[in-house]
Amino acid sequence: MAVVFRDTDEVRTGSFLDRAGIGVSAVCLAQCVALTLAIVLAPVVSLGFFGSDLFHRLLLILIVPVSLSAFVIGYRAHGQVGLLLAGAGGLLILLLAAFLEATVLTPLAASLLTSIGGVVLITAHWLNLRQRRSICLQPR
């Protein structure tokens, strides 16, 4: 009896998008942690472009479509609403931090909120990737 594993273009694309989502979210998280340390350790130093609202919004231009695509493809494969909601929650936290940092949040609060959103998003991508892999490895 031969075992056939599912390996479609959508599965490969979803895997790539989850990995890309993890990577982009990790860059965002690393930048936020570094920014937080810079704020705590050297408040006098100008943070330049990497601490600006523009930089966060440019990162979101990458993070949002990659993440949405990965979670939709993952949901189609495994059907777990919880992972879809976790990804949406991470994105919502990141969006709130990005758009409230200029008006409402202190720099430290914005960095903390962005870091939390990044961790939630990375975790959701990782779980999404694992769920899709487990489905691909199941015999038909």
Main sheet characteristics: none
Measured distance between first and last alpha carbons: 12 Å
The secondary-structure class comes to mainly alpha
- Shape annotation: elongated
Helix content: over 70%
Count of separate DSSP helical elements:
4
Rg, Cα atoms, Å = 17 Å
Number of strands: 0
Overview of the structural elements:
This protein is an all-alpha fold and 140 residues long. 78% of the residues lie in helices and 0% in strands. Helix 1 packs antiparallel against helix 4 and helix 2 packs antiparallel against helix 3. The protein starts with 8 loop residues before the first helix and ends with a helix. The model has no long low-confidence stretch (mean pLDDT 79).
Offer a few descriptive terms.
mainly alpha; 140 residues
How would you summarize what this structure contains?
With 140 residues, this protein is mostly helical. It has four helices and no strands.
Set down the secondary structure blueprint.
Layout: H1 9-41, H2 53-78, H3 81-100, H4 107-136
Helix pairs in contact: 1-2, 1-4, 2-3, 2-4, 3-4
